[in-house]
User: Which sequence fits this backbone?
C-alpha cells in the first residue's frame, strides 16, 4: 500500500496498535521535556556536569533526560525548577480531533 502522507501512516499504525495515540503522546512529552531541560541548561551556560551538580542529580540522569531516554518524574522537574529559580508550568492544549 502506498501512503500519501504522515497522517496515512499514523492511521495505519492506529489500526495496528490501539495504544498508538498514548505512545505518541508519551514520546512527544519526552521530547518536550528533553528540549526544555537542554534549553534551560544552555540558557544558564552550564555543562551537563555543572547543571547536574546544581540540581542535585547525576550527570547521567541529566544526559538521559536531555536525550529523551529517561522519563523525568514530576519530582525531578520540580527539583530542577526550584534549584534554577524557575516555575514549572503545565498546560493542556486543545487538539484537532477531526484528524483521528
Assistant:
Amino acid at each position: 500500500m502506498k501512503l500519501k502522507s504522515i497522517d496515512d501512516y499514523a492511521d495505519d499504525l492506529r489500526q495496528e496498535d490501539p495504544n498508538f495515540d498514548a505512545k505518541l503522546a508519551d514520546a512527544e512529552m519526552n521530547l518536550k521535556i528533553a528540549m526544555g531541560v537542554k534549553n534551560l541548561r544552555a540558557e544558564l551556560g552550564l555543562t551537563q556536569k555543572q547543571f547536574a551538580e546544581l540540581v542535585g542529580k547525576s550527570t547521567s540522569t541529566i544526559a538521559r533526560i536531555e536525550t529523551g531516554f529517561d522519563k523525568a518524574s514530576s519530582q525531578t522537574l520540580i527539583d530542577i525548577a526550584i534549584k534554577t529559580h524557575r516555575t514549572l508550568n503545565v498546560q493542556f492544549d486543545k487538539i484537532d480531533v477531526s484528524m483521528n
